């Protein structure tokens, strides 16, 4: 039989598995974000992988590596003063005639459904250093965003 028709093993035809991508840039976290990251690592470390299938154990270990890396590189930022838009503030703004409020947090803590956006998101970057009353360009439109109020995030 020709070598072209032989397969050494099924392993060589599997899709490669990659590490979970780490967001580029600094790993800034709020106090809440640091707590959530610690809790995630602790929860993953508490899971016994012995009873898992090999694939599930590999996925679990990959996720644990991600969260351990995020915990090791976490940079707890000081509480913002709320004078201007920055990391760790809650911003109320008007966009397209709609009033909205978001908190600017770290990449892993961001969740748009909870009105938490990453400091690296386009909207947060557009608002950085703005103060209440300012109008900002966004999405190619002049004066698209009006900053209504800025306050430090107060977590429990």
Question: How would you sum up this structure, described in words?
Answer:
By secondary structure, this protein is α/β, with parallel strands linked by helices. The chain has a domain at 89-152: Transcription elongation factor, GreA/GreB, C-terminal domain (Chitinase A, domain 3). The protein has three helices and seven strands, in the order βααββββαββ. It has a five-stranded mixed beta sheet. Strands 1-2 form a two-stranded parallel sheet. Helix 1 runs antiparallel to helix 2. It starts with 27 loop residues before the first strand and ends with a strand. This is GreA/GreB family elongation factor. Keywords: Elongation factor, Protein biosynthesis. Residues 1-16 have a biased composition (Basic and acidic residues). InterPro entries: GreA/GreB_C_sf (IPR036953), Tscrpt_elong_fac_GreA/B_C (IPR001437), Tscrpt_elong_fac_GreA/B_fam (IPR023459).
Query: Number of DSSP helices?
Result: 3
Using the CA coordinates, give the radius of gyration.
Answer: 22 Å
* CATH fold naming of the domain at 89-152: Chitinase A, domain 3
What is the H/E order?
Answer: EHHEEEEHEE
Beta-strand proportion: 15-25%
Q: What's the helical proportion of residues? A: 25-40%
Shape: elongated
SSE blueprint and pairings:
Blueprint (H helix, E strand, L loop, with lengths): L27 E2 L1 H15 L8 H20 L1 E2 L12 E7 L2 E8 L10 E3 L3 H6 L7 E4 L2 E12 L4
Parallel strand pairs: 1-2, 4-5
Antiparallel strand pairs: 3-4, 3-7, 6-7
Task: Provide key terms for this protein.
single chain; 156 residues; Chitinase A, domain 3; 5-stranded mixed beta sheet; two-stranded parallel sheet; 7 strands; 26% helix; 24% strand
């Amino acid at each position: 039989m020709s070598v072209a028709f032989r397969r050494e093993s099924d392993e060589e035809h599997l899709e490669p598995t990659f590490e979970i991508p780490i967001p580029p840039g600094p790993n800034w976290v709020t106090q809440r974000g640091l707590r959530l990251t610690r809790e995630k690592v602790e929860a993953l470390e508490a899971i016994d992988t012995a009873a898992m299938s090999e694939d599930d154990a590999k996925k679990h270990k990959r996720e644990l590596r991600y969260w351990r890396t995020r915990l090791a590189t976490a940079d707890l930022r000081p509480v913002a003063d709320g004078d201007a838009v920055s990391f760790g503030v809650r911003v109320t703004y008007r966009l397209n005639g709609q009033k909205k409020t978001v908190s600017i947090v770290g990449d892993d803590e961001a969740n748009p459904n909870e009105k938490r956006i990453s400091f690296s998101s386009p909207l947060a970057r557009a608002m950085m250093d703005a103060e209440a009353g300012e109008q900002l360009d966004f999405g190619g439109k002049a004066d698209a965003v009006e900053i209504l109020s800025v306050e430090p995030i107060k977590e429990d």
